[in-house]
## 1
Amino acid sequence: MAFALFSPIFGIPPIEHILKEEFSLSHAQTSLIYSGPVLMIAVISLPAGILTDRIGIRKAAGIGAIILAIGSVLRLTANNPQSLIAFSFIYGVGVGWVFPNLPKLVSLWAPKHRAVSITAIYTVALYVGPALALAITVPVMLATTGTYQVAFLLWSIPAIIAAVMWWILVREPTSQEPPSENRVNNITKLRTVFSNANVWLLSIIAFFYFFFYYTWSGWAPTLLISKGASASLAGLISSITIWVGIPIVFLMPRLNTKLGLRKPFLWGPAVACIIASLVVVRIGLSATWLPMVMVGIADGAIIVTLLILLVEIVDVKLVGIATGVVWAISHGGGFIGPIIGGNILDTTGNLNLSYIILAIICSALVAVAFKLPETGPKASRISTVESTNY
């Protein structure tokens, strides 16, 4: 399921130039095919989480899997821009429906001593799917009919398999709370979460992060093609960012624990993203792997730290609702960023200004990160020393 979630999204950037010509679209319009599903994560994730509490996680995630598969397959039948964008949004509804349920599935199915390893498995799948989509979409197309429908078909297959296997194999967890209790508690939990200033600060940080990440990933192949890369090479180089992020996701929790602080793993990677954004538009094609690696390391550090902070800034009973709120707000950035990049490309003919904006966004992330209270194990020790010095 995790592998199927984001593969269809990241199969779009390598063939953006093909879709633009095939459907007579502007770059901004083409970006809707890529970022539209991200918007659906923002719109659907919180209601989907509440619906899950009412009908049970097997049915809720299973319905999301069906919508995911249907939306992916429907893209094959699109014969005009409107239908292609609409079908991409339907697929996005499935993503927004399933994505927030993955952590909850682990908590309900897995004993505590296995939860970390199972989370690692589906996290790797969340990375491998997009990385493969960037790297192999164009080569697979060229090896067959060479049409964009091959790409849509390729990334529909995992979603179809996941939906079929889900309804055949999955059973309802026995450890769920009674739905009636969840209905009563959700309103109270929402009020508590919305009144927590730290949740809003984390949401703003995550908004800036997803603005950067989806814009960087969505337009990287186009930028590399403008530097002289073939479509296949552009997709492969762009995928470096995600491949590098996989080991970082496993390494970062240990580094977080060893340092005992959280905020440096937000502002430090953001500074690296500022440098990468300013450098990537000025260097030659042969050196572009370096900023891709920098962003990959930063991506793994930031996403892991966000997940850790979600557990630390609210009571454990509010983590689910808080995650839904933060994800809903933050993925709005993942929708807006690529569209701004497309409009800039349509207006100026290049992406230079887009990457300057990304540097500004990451600078804002650094500023807000310093406003967030430190929650790491060493935070209280630092506060004590500062108080004594004062």
Note: Residues 382-390 have pLDDT under 50 and may be disordered.
## 2
Amino acid sequence: MSKFIYLSRLNPLRLHLGKPNNIYTLKHADTDELWMQVITDLSTPLDKMRLQNVSSLQERIATASAVTDGHLRIVTFKFDTNGLFGCYRAYCETRINNVYRYLWSEKIHIAPEHTGLTLLQYRDVDKKNDVKYKQNNDGINIFSRRIEGGFQQNNYIPKGIDTVYMDANLRYKMLHSLTYNTNIFHAGDTYGIPDDVHKGINAAFGCDTVFIDSEGYTKYEGAEWTPNEIELYPFRSWTIELAKNGFVYDANFVPPTTDDRLFGVGYLRPQDFLYNDSFIKSF
């Protein structure tokens, strides 16, 4: 029997005992990759997860990859959403204290295109955390989620790193100056998002590799989320200061062509980039 089931907030999907109230619907483009990871004890028979259409009840079984790490069982699920359209829920069956229970996600609206949404992709390979990336036989998977918001008007903040010398006559001389800018990112757009959804977004920005619409960003040092809220309204929107990153090119870098698969899936997947994951500031 199962002793515990652990789901990191980095997972785009959250599971609940029973079908949760649909106060918020997740969004997902059918070409986006949808991963989920579940960590349990060794006795847990949780190896299957399905996507079920809310209306037709048609299902797709997710591909599962399981390994053991000490006393833990780590199961990574990859959902095939290509060609799907409509509202779905992910669910699985598990046995907790000899009682079979169903775990359900919120509704997921899958469509070929979601106008006005931002694609947030992230992974964390350099630090220890509660997501085990190394076990995936297909390579290092990266989480993706579509969120309301993005970079809006008046998000440019100019900055600079200056070295100034003052001589004995109190004259100043600029010895070195490096100018750059940061940007204000909005999560939640106009209508806001539930706090529990934002907790997952906040966890994503704590990862060492973050892409927003296929461009790398890092949370600016010392930056904190600022809420925008209306009294008695349950949803909030949030803003934070981000710094854009460049890439360190691989020594064997070959410029991609228009026939390269990087350009054939509708967006650039970070795991397909012909660079490594080291970031340098792009000033």
Note: The chain has two domains: 5-115, 149-281.
## 3
Amino acid sequence: MKEHQNKIKITVENLYDDRKLELTANRFADLNDWIDIFKTILIHQTFAHDSVKELFEPENSEEFCRNEY
């Protein structure tokens, strides 16, 4: 039972075609872990690998953080 105390369960269901994705992450996961989780979800939802890669790995890192204060 204690092994589940530090876990987060994420479920993504597509009710249209009964597709389901279940992910389990450590509740202390860092930002890179969460980026991998979101990449997995987007690809599961049929976004192209190249589009997902472009979203998370922009060519110009200044553009990626332009709204940061």
Note: The first helix runs from residue 31 to 44.
